[in-house]
């Protein structure tokens, strides 16, 4: 950690690496003035299903122009993705140790409709933080923060679902934990925070803290 401030993109049921930043940094800024990027954690998460890693993606309303700000991205309900996501989560984690304990906390995100992706992700994040029993200092950016700004440790593009596009993060080191289908497919790294919570429950925060490397 070079700075006390970090920059993150918004994220849908963000990965474990992302939540380590929420634990690690005194000040967290979530970028809302960027041009929206597709095929990122902004509208997707990865869970661990019976056949391996299963991506869940939120469809968004197609922009009328080539570029749209993240803060203006709207969720599409042309398909019943909420039902599909809910069934996918159930199939993936119904046999996990803490599924029954936590699943009701997430049901509203798959029954109620949100119009704005940024607000939807924020509601999810607030719920997760409540379950982890932490209150980090998080705020949205007031304007676009240029890349290379020395005041921030910038993870907006480093935390990415595609290994070929993700950057090096020396402050994150993940140890193995027991996963539902680990015996079948092996340990899967940096999945959605859902995977951690359903498998480790109250020990999730301690796991996040242990995954942070102080440089």
From TrEMBL:
Pfam (any one): WbqC
Domain of life per record: Bacteria
Protein name: WbqC family protein
Upper taxonomic lineage: Bacteria, Pseudomonadati, Bacteroidota, Bacteroidia, Marinilabiliales
